[in-house]
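step 4 of 6: structure.
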Amino acid sequence: MTKPQPRKTAPNKTAKGATQPKAKAMGQPDAQSSAEAAVGQPQEASVQLHIPASTEYVRVARLAVTGVASRMDFSYEEIEDIKLAVSEACNNAILHATPPPTAAALPSLPSVVITVTPYPDRIEISVADEGQVPVTTLQNAARKALDARIQSDPDSLAHLPESGFGLLLIQSLMDTVEHQADADSNTLIRMTKYLRGRGNVSATL
Amino acid sequence: MDLQLHTLSSNGTTIIAVAGEVELHSAAQLRAELLQACDKERPCIVIDLSGVNFMDSSGIGVIVGALKRARERGGTLSLVGPQPRVRRIFEITGLLSALPFFETVDDAVTACAANTSEVTAQDDQDSPEANGRPNP
């Protein structure tokens, strides 16, 4: 399937980082315990992408994650699932990281950081944002605004299902989904999709 | 933007052919087009999704919003020919059975016209006061 060389998935990855895990896995093919342990280890270094918190960059994140997933043994349908889940997570991160229009303008756009890690049995993707507004404040404000708009302008109902459907889609498309939020309003969503019934990918490299 | 919209008006029906990727970035473009199509009494709108190769929940939100607006104005909004991937999003969100999907644009236009004439007939029978609603 995938060609081992050349690799150009991670700009911040050293040649040493790229070859070490693979060499280790191939060097101990008869050690079953090592193979089992390797399932929990990244197949290779993570790919990390920083995008400005702006909607036009969601496509870039989508393409990057699709690129990594394509090198694994996922089916076309599964890659499409991953692609959509990443888009939804990035959408949420951008909406969360972007201050409301009433807030003071920021000197520059905050970043959304997408980290993709391929494991022998799964792909793990995290999407983190530098929240500009505490999550609870944002949610309360959004809820109030939404209620007001629904009463005054029925068209705003169009906004109602968007975020709800986004999370629903992520949970339906991925195998595990975790949320984290810290005191600084930074939030992170981590999602995983497992390779199904295709054996240990590292064995084919 | 990577969204192409071709709008055609025919016999009171507005047919919007959408092609490309409907995502958060491009959803506003589709929303604006749909709002314009809704901006008349009993709008009859058909959205041809066959050219859409990617859609996220932003697109769903826009379509659901437009459907509500069209119905509030006594009209209809129908969807035609989503590709399997796009169709799946409607399935997951439970909207496949809730929204009016048609195989072809012609089918949707025919259903739209039938619905409009049905509504008109009902209006003729009912008293104007019962249905009377100030135009926005």
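step 5 of 6: annotate
 - The CA atoms of residues 1 and 204 of chain A lie 8 Å apart.
 - The longest helix of chain A spans residues 76-97.
step 6 of 6: archive
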